[in-house]
Each structure stands twice: as structure tokens, then as C-alpha cells.
Amino acid sequence: MRIVDCHVHVSGHTDPDKLLSQLDDSGVDRVILLSQVERRSLEKTRENLLATKRLLEAGGDRISALAWVNPTIDGMGDLAAEALTEMGYSGIKIIPDHWFAYEQQLEPFWERMNQLEASILFHTGILWLFEDGSRFCRPVYLEKLLHYPKIRFAMAHISWPWCEECLAVMGRMRAAAKRDGNRPWQSYIDLTPGTPAHIRRQAVANAIAYCGPQRIMFGSDASAPDGMAWQKQLVQEYRAILDELDLDQQQTQRILAGTADEVFPPTR
After folding, report:
1. Poorest-confidence range of 49-53, 55-59, 75-79?
2. 76-85 helix and 42-59 helix, angle to the nearest 10 degrees
3. 76 pLDDT higher than 80
4. Cβ–Cβ under 8 Å, residues 134 and 126
5. For the structural domain made of 4-263, what CATH number should be given?
6. In what order do the strands lie in the sheet containing 152-155?
7. Residue 265 neighbours by CB distance under 10 Å
8. Fewest Cβ atoms nearer than 10 Å: which of 23, 121, 161, 207?
9. Is the dihedral of CA 67, 71, 73, 78 positive or negative?
10. Helix, strand, or coil here: 92?
């Protein structure tokens, strides 16, 4: 069974050969890395993107990446476009960092991403960093992206503790696509915890029942290079959950690899 992990952080210097060995140990065929976060500086963001670009160049079709950007930084639209069109990034990673997605100041950035038909992974749900930042990360604020129908976006962590709100946003986007046959269903769900162990199976089951496997992708939220044991553990746990839910092989394969390959395809 092919496995793609859509959500692994780069947390420091990472040797590509070691990373590939770690993927082999976890049974993961392809990883989508998130470049290191930078909250304030455009130049430091560029440095982070160039550092992760070296992993892309070394990893072939097994290592892809999302460019972690803060769209409120001046000039970030141009840098995000460069990441997508010149650096080999498969998409963008964003945490709403003390701003709401619906704010007028962000409209030029969303328009730029719309023109590029970008795929974006948003942190949604409780946030363990960035001071008191969780309130900015509720999934309902992403309804704003209805105005930018060429953007595809995934909500990480099933938006826990707002899992039902995440599903409501999924339904809202699905309804918009049904009403207008010319627009796509824009939204997806990234299964990374988030969800505590005692409710994880039910949250996954609810997401599958409401959205279908074609809208859901596996991710671990592991960190490279030193936190990859978590990836192996999550692969085993999610495979067990999907087995318990009695999905067929095609549905399981879609969640474990197909959705991520579609939304964040390899660029080389």
C-alpha cells in the first residue's frame, strides 16, 4: 500500500539520505515537508525556503515540500509565487498568526494565490505556539476562500477541537461547487493529530462519512530529523483505524496517498 505523509516539519538541519532511510523505516513512499516557520522577516523566510529546496533537489520524487509563509509580510506574495513557480514547492503552508483569513489586507495575497491555482495547507484548530493564537485558526474563517475558487486548501488536524466546524466548512464548499458546476470543491482535510487518542477514531470516521475518502489525506505532524519515530507510530495507528472502519483497498489507498498526491503533487 502506497503511503504519502502530507505533513512533516523541518525542524533543523536534515540530511536527505537519513530522511529517506527514516521514510523506509516508516513504510512511507513520499513525504511532504513543511519549511521552517518565520513570523516576521521576508529574507529569513527566503533562507528557510532555500534550505528546504536543497532537500527537494536531493530527494527526487520521494521528497516534496510546502513553503511556510506569513502572508502579512510585505513582499510575501512574490516570494510565495517564486516558491511555487521556480523553487519546486508543491504548495503553501500557512498558520493564521494573529490575523483572520477574511481580513481585507490579505485579499491581494489570496488573489495572487488564486491566479497561481495554489494549493494551501492551513493550520486549523488549537495551536500550541504563537502565544494566544488559537482563536485565529477556526476553520469557519476559511469560508473567505469562496471568493478565490482556484485555490485548493486543506484543513490540518481535522481542526480539533472544532472538528464539526471543519466538516461544516467542507459541506459549505461542497454546496458551492454543486450550485455552480464551473467551480471545484476547494476543500480537503488533513488527518494529523490534533485529535486526542480517545476520540481520534470517531473523528476520522465522521470525516470519511461526511466528506468521502477522496477529500481526506494522511499526515503525521512528525518533525525531521529527530522526531520521525512519531511518523512510524502514526502510520501504524491510522492503518489500524482504517482497517477497523472496513474501508475497501481503493478507499484506504486514497486516504493514505491519493488525496495528497492530487492536492500537493510532486514537482519533479
Report:
1. 55-59
2. 10
3. yes
4. yes
5. 3.20.20.140
6. 216-217, 187-190, 152-155, 119-122, 91-94, 63-68, 30-34, 4-10, 222-224
7. 12
8. 161
9. positive
10. strand
- Alpha carbon distance 172, 160 (integer Å): 18
For β-strands 216-217 and 187-190, DSSP reports them as parallel
Q: Could you identify the residue written with the cell 505533513?
A: 7
Three cell numbers at 217?
489525506
pLDDT band at 180 (very low <50, low <70, confident <90, very high): confident
Mean pLDDT, residues 190-209 taken together? 96
Coil vs helix vs strand at 125 = coil
pLDDT tens digits along 4-45: 999 999 998 899 999 999 999 999 999 999 999 999 999 999
Residue 94 neighbours by CB distance under 10 Å: 22
Q: Are 145 and 117 in contact (CB under 8 A)?
A: no
Residue type, 198: H
How many CB atoms within 10 Å of residue 104?
6
CB atoms within 10 A of CB 259: 24
Residue for grid cell 500500500: 1
Q: What is the pLDDT of residue 165?
A: 98
Per this entry, what is the length of the chain?
A: 268
What three-state secondary structure class fits 91?
Answer: strand
Res 68: pLDDT = 98
Q: What is the dihedral of CA 15, 20, 21, 22, to 10 degrees?
A: 90
Helices (H), the chain: 16-26, 42-59, 76-85, 107-115, 163-179, 197-211, 229-244, 249-253, 259-263
pLDDT band at 141 (very low <50, low <70, confident <90, very high): very high
